[in-house]
Design brief:
Elements (H helix, E strand, L loop, with lengths): L3 E6 L3 E6 L2 E8 L3 H15 L5 E10 L5 H14 L3 E8 L4 H16 L6 E4 L2 H11 L7 H13 L5
Parallel strand pairs: 3-4, 4-5, 5-6
Antiparallel strand pairs: 1-2, 2-3
Length: 159
Amino acid sequence: MSEVRGTHITRAATLGIYRNIGIWIWRRGADAAMIDQLAITLNALAALDGPSGMITVVGRGVTVPGNAIRKGIVDACRKVTGKVLAGGVVHERDDLVAALVRGVVTGLLLLGPGIFPHTVFRTTTEASNWVRKKLDGKAPSTAEIVAAITEVRAMRAEE
């Protein structure tokens, strides 16, 4: 595929852009530097011609982030609302942590009026379908988005 660009790779996360879809593979923890990279990715999406969307895949090592990180995410999202139209959050686990993450996303939406819509999904296919629908089909196919997510997920910093 190799059309993924603008990648930022650390042990905690990988961010990239595939056409008009931002991809954030969040593996563990979060800090101000990661939020800065998220803002850079979102700003790059907002600068594109036409609508764009974001898909975040939350990994098993992610815990519920603290207030400062949550505020940083909301602020980064708020700045690009209107150009970035949808955010699909994928949490592939069905346990208490997944429920907490779903709760945090709901809380972010309540705390951050004016940010683009976000919904939590169990699979990347479900999230890709939803983002495509929110972009009125002005996005790569679901299969292409899922393949790009797989490509970005495979990009890892040395452990």
